[in-house]
């Protein structure tokens, strides 16, 4: 144990020395080198990103620096935002992915007209001080926003106890686009649904929360609701219902998530010919598997997944109406039979 600790300390000191002397620094962007490292004549060692964007089409002599490649693959590197408060030390293979989404890096305010810039942990205070009209405080898992028929980009900070989310919403070409992003490490919710009451009934969609950096990009076309010919008013009430997918067995969520409606499956669970699972409700609405386009047979049930369901804690299926009851499968089924929100 002592020898292992000594070895780890020596490796850390070696890494720190390389970083201090800029041995691992790209000669172009001055960030940590990433593989494959290219040695460019007259420039020095450059990361693969810089090589592809600046030097690959130039008539310069270059070759892969395999020795440096090997060395950096064995190192654990502290995050470049250590001085801002990040304590992560990561294998080089994970370093670049972490830095891209590190919550300690300075980011601009998501409201484009604002010039403020700081790290993610200060966004709440900034909104409270400078954009108070854009802050929505709620004490339940449901909230609504009102937007105009031709709503330009709307940004709101949603605060729920110790959790905060950033909402981005706009209407373009008759379609509502939206995203909800996490803004801190405390994350109770992982999913949400969106509902709009229209002249033909309620339109809804299920989505997943995004990481905060997504707020600066475009909203995915998948996160959109077509409003053309469905509304008869100039103001639109959009309701967001947050989902908490607590389960008793960690890691089961990804196996029990229906690939169509994105909710936790409960019996009956069906399989396509290639083995992809789908909940019973969605099987009545689709004829082909969304993943592989193969068909479903009438008796294609996944008995193993159905057996796991009894270990999972489910939300009431009327949670979109406001029910907060949770329980294991048999308990929640009994509750749903008498749920006060059942017929509302």
TrEMBL record:
- PROSITE patterns associated with the record: ZF_RING_2 (PS50089), ZF_SIAH (PS51081)
- Cite the SIAH-type domain residue spans from the record: 74-132
The UniProt entry, under Gene3D superfamilies, shows: Zinc/RING finger domain, C3HC4 (zinc finger)
GO biological process entries: proteasome-mediated ubiquitin-dependent protein catabolic process
> What is this enzyme's catalytic activity, as reactions?
S-ubiquitinyl-[E2 ubiquitin-conjugating enzyme]-L-cysteine + [acceptor protein]-L-lysine = [E2 ubiquitin-conjugating enzyme]-L-cysteine + N(6)-ubiquitinyl-[acceptor protein]-L-lysine
Q: Name one GO molecular function term.
A: ubiquitin protein ligase activity
Record's keyword annotation contains Transcription: no
User: Could you tell me which pathway this protein works in?
Assistant: Protein modification; protein ubiquitination
- This protein's species is Brassicogethes aeneus (Rape pollen beetle)
Q: What is this protein called?
A: RING-type E3 ubiquitin transferase
Query: What keywords would UniProt list here?
Result: Metal-binding, Transferase, Ubl conjugation pathway, Zinc, Zinc-finger
Taxonomy, top ranks, is: Eukaryota, Metazoa, Ecdysozoa, Arthropoda, Hexapoda
Q: Does the keyword Glycosyltransferase apply?
A: no
For this protein, the Enzyme Commission number is 2.3.2.27
* Pfam short name (any one): Sina_ZnF
- Residues in RING-type domain copies: 258-293
The text of the family note is: Belongs to the SINA (Seven in absentia) family.
Superkingdom in the source lineage? Eukaryota
